[in-house]
Amino acid sequence: MKRIIPRPVARGFSLLVTLFVILVLGALAAFALRIGAMQTQSVDFDLLNAQARAAAASGIEYGANQALRAMSCPAPPTTFNLGAAGLQGFSVTVTCSPSMHTVSGTSYESYALTATAQRGLYGSPDFVQATETRNVNKAPP
Asked: Is residue 109 domain-resident?
């Protein structure tokens, strides 16, 4: 007669391992998605910052052109909206402050320009602002 040896019964152990693996893989997937979303937001914000700096530089060029052509600062700050490709939606405010200087008996006026470019409303995710300053003059050589 054959003797039957009972096998040890392992019930539920493989189920626990499977659940643990599923949970770990789910957590890794959620982490990867979050990192990917953060990198996308970072790249978008870097692009907006670069656009804001370019818009502020455009405002400086506009202010320098106006000041040097008229040889005086426009009285009120000038605000305008940009329509160039890549800079649409930016509002630029240019201010100018004149000051007199004398070099070797020759007087000339210098203009301190400040341009602030802004897009979006403060507190919103797409808000960005950049400011540039520059001094321009027509000093004798």
From this structure: yes
In this predicted structure, what is the pLDDT of residue 40?
67
Structural domain total, the chain: 1
What's the pTM value of the predicted model, to 2 decimals?
0.68
pLDDT tens by residue, 19-71: 889 999 998 888 888 887 777 677 678 888 999 999 999 999 999 998 888 87
Other CB atoms within a 10 A radius of the CB of residue 77 amount to 14
DSSP for 71-100 reads TS--SSPEEEE--STT-TT-EEEEEEEEEE
Classify residue 1: in a domain, yes or no: no
Answer yes or no: is 6 within a domain: no
What lies within 8 Å, CB to CB, of 113 at 6+ separation is 60, 63, 64, 67, 94, 95, 96, 133, 134, 135, 136
Residue of 101, 94, 90, 99 lying closest to 64 (CA atoms): 94
Q: Tell me which residue range forms the domain holding 35.
A: 14-137
